[in-house]
Amino acid sequence: MISRLTGSIVHVDPKYIVVDVQGVGYKVATTVDIMTKLNKEQGPVTLWTYLAVRETALDLYGFLSLSELSFFELLITISGIGPKTALGILNSASVEALETAVQTGDTSHIVKVSGIGKKVAEKIVLELKDKVEKVTHTPEAKTAMRGEADALEALKSLGYTQNEARDALKELPKTITKTNEKIKEALKILGK
To answer: What DSSP string describes 158-185?
Structure first.
């Protein structure tokens, strides 16, 4: 099993990257966020990988941290969730946001993934609730998740793509907690 790769990126595609490891190019599917981070890297990169074995293919999925890989592996233990769907879920939000969503029962990030409806999102939350690291169950945590989802929707309604809106919201300082302030600051970032 291939569990880690270190090499240089020789190709970036919208759905995968090719990592050259001593003359061998490995095609690795990964999230948009990881591709963006890796595209800015100079020199060798290291990816933690998951090898999905099927009858017709061997597919590699790559992550920058063990926590991302671990969450991916948790997702694919759920019946009906394959590696591509799990990667789609990780594309919708950060691992920390997804863990908080699972612990607070918030399915808003998960239902945004193509092919996942409310029932499947609820199933994911239910099955992962005891498996993910415990996070605070405070009302503030739930309010923060709802505020981020509302800000994301507002930015999308203003014509920004989900990725543009999510990237702008990630750049905001953690001290900004009110939804309207998040939207204002994100618009400043998107206007640059």
So the answer is: TT--HHHHHHHHHHS-TT--SHHHHHHH
For residues 95 and 135, is the Cβ–Cβ distance under 8 A?
Answer: no
3-state secondary structure of 156: helix
Give me the CATH topology for the region 4-63: OB fold (Dihydrolipoamide Acetyltransferase, E2P) (2.40.50)
pLDDT one-digit tens code per residue, 25-65: 999 999 988 888 887 777 899 999 999 998 898 999 999 98
Phi-psi region of 29 (alpha: psi -120 to 50; beta: other; left: phi over 0): beta
Which residues face 49 on adjacent strands? 62
What CATH superfamily is the domain 67-128? 5' to 3' exonuclease, C-terminal subdomain (1.10.150.20)
Q: CA-to-CA distance for 32 and 12, rounded, in angstroms?
A: 11
